[in-house]
Amino acid sequence: MIDRKIYSVSQINRYIRGLLEMDVILNSIWVRGEISNLKVHTSGHIYFTLKDSSSAISAIMFASYAALMPYDLENGMDVIVCGYVSLYEKTGKYQLYVQIAEPAGAGELSIAFEQLKRKLQEEGLFDEDYKRPIAKHPQAVAVITSPTGAAVRDVINILKRRAPNVKVIVCPALVQGEGAADSIVSALSDINESGLADTIILGRGGGSMEDLWPFNEEKVARAIFASEIPVISAVGHETDFTIADFVADLRAPTPSAAAELASADCMEEKRNILNIADRLNLSIDSILKRESERIKSAFGIRVLRRLEERTVNLEILNDRLLIQLNNSIEAQVKNAFNRYNLLSEKLGLLSPLNVLKRGYAAVFDKNGSTVMDPDNLQENDLVRIQFYTGDVWAEIRKKDYNYGEKKENL
Questions:
Q1: Which residue among 16, 73, 282, 355 is least crowded, i.e. fewest CB within 10 A of its CB?
Q2: d(CA 405, CA 294)
């Protein structure tokens, strides 16, 4: 009896996996197909089916390779992938392990550009409602670009020529290659934190799509959108468009054009002011001439002459009334003064001093009260006797005198 070699399922799958991985063709292979049934796991791994018109193969791209992709894989996308074929032992299903995926038609950068553009547009980052006006007469303009490129020199020269009073702040940044996007984001953050500029010009000269790619990265787009200071995007030549152009508050076809958009031409402003002043002077001269003619014509009208005569007559009448009023006031004052003198004379006749002047005297006790009756005085009382020219003090001595039938105490 022939001995039978019995294998387990795991052994078979492991053997087949070894055969597949040792195959020279299957170990590193390029495959073209259309993506379907795409699923992105929370771990970052991407599972999908790669198919053509008659067949399909399961495929997986691990998260470490997916993170290097400049764009996202989508259902229906025609791609060329590179990887190896192996067996997943647990299910016995062979699949394609993808390490690289490129668009079969358009370039991968173009795909990434369109995907990010669509994503940001759906979020509203391109909406006109968020665009802020560029200052017409800025105090300072910040220029974010390479400090050694031609673009920065062009911007500075144009700004100094058009607006010599505007301060130019150069914010050096990488604008190409690895780390350029982070450098641009950092420069935008720094100038916003400083608050020293009214306008930001972000740009560089022309180049290939790869050269301009930092301005198509999502982190740069979001930094532009978050900027508190209005941003003018000036990347490449007139025909070049980047994501930064769509997010910025204003797009300029070139850095030189950005400098013109960020400043007012002082000479043009001066010419405008002079033209306005000339028109104003002409308008004033015309108005003065017209009003002068109108006034001259008005004075020749008879009604105005009569009004002038009436005004003069009223002034004469006013003068006469003033004279009459003054005379009346003087007469009333004189009459009042005479009446005052007369009353003063009558009052003087009734004055006690005039009585004393005729030889009479007044007696006052020690308290200053007038003595009207001698019976109110006691012997030894002191009294003051007031004469016209002065007074004396006297002491009372009582003695009986007979005047008819009445006794008087003195």
A1: 282
A2: 113
The CATH homologous superfamily of the domain defined by 9-105: Nucleic acid-binding proteins (2.40.50.140)
* Cβ proximity of 262 and 203 under 8 Å: no
How far apart CA 85 and CA 94 sit, in angstroms, is: 7
3-state SS assignment for residue 371: coil
Distance in angstroms (rounded) separating the CA atoms of residues 201 and 209: 20
Number of residues that this document lists for the chain: 410
Element (H, E) at 363: strand 362-365
Fold entry, domain 138-264: Rossmann fold (3.40.50)
Alpha helix positions (H), 167-235: 180-194, 218-226
Average pLDDT over residues 281-310: 72
Considering only CA atoms, give the Rg of the chain: 59
Cα 209 to Cα 150, 235, 248, distances in angstroms: 19, 11, 19
Would the pLDDT of 347 be above 90? no
SS3 content of the chain, % helix, strand, coil (to 5): 45, 25, 30
Based on the number of CB atoms within 10 Å of its own CB, is 203 exposed (0-12), middle (13-18) or buried (19 or more)? buried
Using one digit for the tens of pLDDT, what is the confidence trace for 220-263? 999 999 999 999 999 988 777 899 999 999 999 999 999 999 88
Q: What are phi and psi of 173, to 5 degrees?
A: -155, 150
Q: Where are the domains of the chain?
A: 9-105, 138-264, 357-409
pTM score of the predicted model: 0.49
Q: Which residues lie closer than 8 Å to 38 by C-beta, 6 or more apart?
A: 46, 47, 48, 73, 74, 75
Dihedral of CA 4/5/10/15: which sign?
A: negative
The secondary structure of residue 124, as a DSSP letter, is T
Torsion angles phi and psi, residue 254, rounded to 5: -145, 160
How many Cβ atoms are within 10 Å of 269's Cβ, its own excluded? Answer: 14
Residue 119 to residues 71, 114, 116, 222: CA-CA distances in angstroms? 12, 9, 5, 12
Q: Is the pLDDT assigned to residue 407 strictly greater than 50?
A: no
| Phi and psi torsions of 85, nearest 5° | -100, 130
Q: Answer for the pair 145, 200: CB distance below 8 angstroms, yes or no.
A: no
CA–CA distances in Å: residue 173 to residues 101, 203, 244? 32, 10, 15
